[in-house]
């Protein structure tokens, strides 16, 4: 399915609402409820809008093959549980994490404002998207947010030889006076699986500290990583134990604490075509209006100014905001073949 | 002052309570209240007991010169503020962070149990110790804990040329069924300042990705780092932007949120001898009894077993526990000259 952003040929500029609407029709037509379709379509169109192509329309085939496999329930209705004054849980019912999050969002914000801090523990959920869309809205609402999600076993623990952890990203967002929120979203693996595949295709070797072969030995050969090997945690040759510790923390908070699966626990072999990890997600959010001293958002802006003065030319999240502004002004650039294929998936003959 | 752990000569094995008592007398004699002395002595003796020498008695001269300089108030009485059901703040009153934490500890635990999650924001505080002692007790009490503290400008942000962040550690602890808690404590810098000094003394070059010279250019020469240069965030040559993002998060949570100073903001030039960073600290703690599904501590143990099966031979914190057991059985090994000097500082002629 030619849903690449980088396909050659004509480029079309698609308004955000058109892309979102088309994606929603695709999801609903391929096995989700209208509610789930709306949430996933917004998420996926937002990634494409912001130039986060690896989580944009590129993911649609994976979503559809997963839905077709019966691995995930596109009609799941999340069940929100009010566990304690600062603690919400959601059983996603073997559905996607994003609708589960959506169902609890307002309650989470209210709890954070009332208690100063609140957390949302999502379990029995599938997360196949970028993580920054889960924290940015909280910062838009004036809150500080930290999100962690585990995924599927493809990373060896530091010193180990067998894949156990997922790429296990950590995302963070903070309100910034006079600007879009400060947001980062980083995998705790040294490299993304997609980048290993690209290197293999191009015949490039990888730098040290990125992966191991099927025997657990360090390798620079991307094909050896793909052929039964695994990724290393980030940190470089000398500090991958740090990335490994953070990845372990993600497993504990996103899976053990929520009641979800560890990245190595689920077995999708009975569902050929399944691609979505069935795990959990934790979101912690803090109300900085409770801070002592000057406005948190102003302090955040002070720090950004200081980082710029120290020579950091690009702040976390900045590239996304720039692409977002362009997309909202001119439309989202998509290869014409990709846009045609999306429209066919949405409205054409099955 | 010969307070090295590695001084040559005879080694004496000192019972924990003897070392703690001696350190308490040293602190009180050199400018702290009895309450502050007891907390700092316990902290410092615990680090020495666990083989964490860089935060053990090695730090005593730094504590004393800082107290003598008037930079920190050894008699400060922390003021605990009950900000919201899940939010405690402490104004440490320009004193040390550990007594401030101690003053709020029981209330923090109670809030976490009542609300599911709680945080403690310490400001106007000096942290000169390891960070793991701040999270381990919470895990001993059955809670999950995350602590962040910023320090003093010695790390360049990713892509930058001037030191801005501190070594900004992150510590995490989780209860583990049938075992001591799982604990890690990692600096977000590529290397500790002390290790750069050791490399310079030994004439060794550092690996790539550890530091920059006074012009902000990458260097392998530890002397160039010490001579007006700075450390890099951890992550290695290809991912130091990730360590940088985490270090930025520590600045925002430990300083901006608490109302403390950023690592680059305080000026101790009027206090020669001062060594303790005057910043803030954030502790987030979660009650895993609120978890869905199986016992969190059992799930934690399951993960540790899986990490061992994947070939990870040493779990985070394990080395400390092993040394702790030895120290409690045989006494804490100290060079006889160091122990004599500590006794002199405590009880000898001034």
TrEMBL record, chains A, B:
Enzyme Commission code: 1.5.1.21
Pfam families: Ldh_2
Class of the enzyme per the UniProt entry, highest EC level: oxidoreductase
Domain of life of the source: Bacteria
Entry's family note: Belongs to the LDH2/MDH2 oxidoreductase family.
GO MF terms held by the record: delta1-piperideine-2-carboxylate reductase activity; pyrroline-2-carboxylate reductase activity
Catalytically driven reaction(s): L-proline + NADP(+) = 1-pyrroline-2-carboxylate + NADPH + H(+); L-pipecolate + NADP(+) = Delta(1)-piperideine-2-carboxylate + NADPH + H(+)
Protein name, as recorded: Delta(1)-pyrroline-2-carboxylate/Delta(1)-piperideine-2-carboxylate reductase
InterPro entries: Mal/L-sulf/L-lact_DH-like_ah, Mal/L-sulf/L-lact_DH-like_NADP, Mal/L-sulfo/L-lacto_DH-like_sf, Malate/L-lactate_DH-like
UniProt organism field: Acidovorax ebreus (strain TPSY) (Diaphorobacter sp. (strain TPSY))
GO biological process: proline metabolic process
Keywords, in A-Z order: Oxidoreductase
């Amino acid at each position: 399915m030619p849903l690449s952003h980088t396909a050659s040929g004509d480029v079309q500029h698609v308004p955000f609402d058109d892309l979102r609407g088309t994606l929603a029709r695709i999801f609903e037509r391929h096995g989700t409820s209208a509610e789930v379709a709306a949430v996933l379509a917004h998420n996926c169109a937002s990634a494409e809008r912001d130039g986060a192509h690896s989580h944009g329309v590129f993911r649609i085939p994976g979503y559809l093959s997963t839905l077709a496999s019966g691995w995930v329930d596109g009609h799941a209705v999340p069940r929100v549980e009010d566990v304690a004054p600062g603690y919400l849980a959601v059983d996603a019912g073997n559905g996607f994490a994003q609708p589960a999050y959506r169902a609890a969002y307002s309650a989470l914000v209210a709890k954070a404002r009332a208690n100063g801090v609140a957390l949302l523990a999502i379990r029995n959920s599938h997360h196949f998207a970028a993580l920054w869309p889960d924290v940015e809205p909280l910062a838009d609402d004036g809150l500080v947010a930290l999100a962690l999600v585990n995924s599927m076993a493809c990373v060896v623990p530091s010193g180990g030889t067998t894949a156990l952890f997922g790429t296990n990203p950590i995302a963070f967002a903070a309100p910034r006076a006079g600007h879009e929120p400060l947001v980062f979203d980083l995998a705790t693996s040294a490299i993304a699986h997609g980048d290993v595949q690209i290197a293999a295709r191009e015949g490039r070797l990888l730098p040290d500290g990125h992966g191991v072969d099927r025997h657990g030995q360090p390798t620079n050969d991307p094909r050896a990583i793909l052929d039964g090997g695994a990724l290393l945690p980030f940190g470089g040759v000398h500090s991958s134990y740090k990335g490994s510790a953070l990845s372990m923390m993600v497993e504990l908070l996103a899976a053990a604490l929520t009641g979800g699966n560890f990245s190595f626990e689920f077995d999708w072999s009975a569902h050929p075509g399944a691609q979505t990890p069935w795990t959990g997600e934790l979101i912690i959010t803090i109300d900085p209006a409770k801070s002592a001293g000057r406005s948190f958002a102003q302090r955040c802006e002070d720090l950004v100014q200081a980082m710029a003065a120290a020579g950091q030319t690009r702040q976390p999240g900045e590239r996304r905001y720039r692409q977002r502004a362009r997309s909202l002004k001119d439309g989202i650039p998509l290869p014409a073949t990709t846009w045609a294929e999306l429209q066919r998936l949405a409205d054409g003959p099955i």
